[in-house]
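In pairs, describe these two lines:
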Amino acid sequence: MLVDSHAHLTSSRFDDDRDDVIRRAHDAGVRFIVNPATDLADSRRAVELADRHEGVYACVGIHPHEAAGATEESFREIEELSSHPKVVAIGEIGLDYHYNFAPPEVQQEVFRRQTALAARLGLPVVVHTRESLEPTIRIVQETIDGAGGWQRKGAVPRNRHPAPRGVFHCFSGDPAAARRVIAMGFAVSLPGILTFKNAGLAVQVASTISLEHFLLETDSPYMTPVPHRGERNEPGLLPLIAAKLAELQHVSVDDVARATSYAAFRLYGIGEEPPPEIVYRLGDALYVNLTIRCNADCVFCDRKGEAVIKGHNLHIDQEPSVQEVQQAIGDPAAFDEIVFCGYGEPTIRLPELKEIAAWVKERGGRTRLNTDGHGSLIHKRDIIPELVGLLDAVSISLNSADPVQYGELMRVDPAVCFPAMLGFAREAVKLLPRVVMTIVDIPEVDAARARRLIEEDIGAIFHTRTYF
C-alpha cells in the first residue's frame, strides 16, 4: 500500500469528480492521502474533506503565494484547525522566490510564524521552496534552535537521525542539500518530475539518498508523471512515481511502498508501526535478523533507536531459535541469497549461524554474512575455518582505514578491534569465496585510502554504503 503525502484534493480542478478521484486512488493501492492547504479557506476545506473520507488527512497553513493576505485572525484560526484529530501537519508553508506573489520579507515572516506554531504544537511542517532553498533552510534551522525539542507529538526517538520535523516537498536541491535537510530531521519527496526527461537534480537525489528518507507524493493536480503529462494529475498515478523511485534505488516497488509508508507513519503518525521481524526481504535477498546485540556501538547505526530498515522493524524482543529462523525462511533456494544481517553482530550467535547456514546450503541456497569482523575476537579463536563451506560471501565493515577514526565511528578500542578486524578479513580472503569490505560514504572518511587498503593490501572487494 502507498501513501500520497501531498495531493491538493481541495483544488477546484477536482470539483466535478473528487469522490471518484479518491476511489481510483484506493483502487490503485493508495491507502492514505495527505491534503496540504494553501490558505485559511483551503485549510477549512481540507479539514472538512478529511472528516468525510477515512483515508484522507489534512494539513493547515498559508502557502507563500498567499502570504500577503495573512492576518492575525488567519494565524489564530490555523491554530484552532490544527487541533482537529485528522490534521497531521502545518502546511503547505515556505518561500517561493520564483513568482514572488508576496514580497520576500512578508513570506519570511509568515513562514517563521508558522514554523514556530508547529514547533509549539508538536506538529511537523510541509515545506515549499522554489528558488529559495538557502533562506528556507536558515529559517527552519532558526526554529529548531529556538524550539529545542521540536518534533511530532508521540514520535519515537531515533538514535541515528533527529526526530521527524517535516518534509521538503517537491525537493529542488542537489544530494548535498538533501543531506542537510535530512540532518535537520526532514524527509524529502519528489512528485512526477522524477519521471521527466529533464528531471536532472531530482534523479540525482533519488539515486543517491537512502530510501528511508523519502516520502511519495503526486502534488496533484500538478506535476503529472510520464506517460500522462498534459493531463490532470491525481493520486491514482502515484504507482508510476513509486516505480521510478524503485528503478533509481535498484529496489522493488514493494520495498519503496513499505519504506515510504513507514516514513509517512513516522512523520504523520498515520498507518501502523510494522511488527518486529526475524527475517526480512529486500529485493531478491532474504535477511536473517539473528540478534540486535553487538560488541560495537557505531555512530551511524540505529540499533538503540527504532532499529527499522526500509520499513522493516528489526527491534526483536527475543532472539529467534534455529527452528524459528528455518520456518521463517521456508525455501532458501527461492531467494538470490540468505544474508545474516540485522542491527546486531551475527557472529555473536556463531553456533546458530553455522547451523542455519548449513541447513540453507543443504537446500540449495546461497549465504552471505554481514559482519563487523570481530567474530574471532569475540570467540577468542580464529572462526574463519569453521565458516568454510557454509558461506558464499562475507561483507566486513571497515568503515575507515584510519585506526583512530575507526574507533571513533564504531565506539570501540581501536588498538584491539582494528587489528582483529584486519586479521579476520585476511583470513577470510584466504579461505572464503568472496570477501567485500565496506565504508560508509561520509565526507570525513578517506575513501581512497580505504580502497587501497582493501584492494591492494587485503585483496578484498571495495564497496561504499549510503549513510543518508
User: Anything to note?
Assistant: The chain has two domains: 2-268, 279-465. The CA atoms of residues 60 and 82 lie 7 Å apart. The domain at 2-268 is CATH 3.20.20.140 (TIM Barrel).
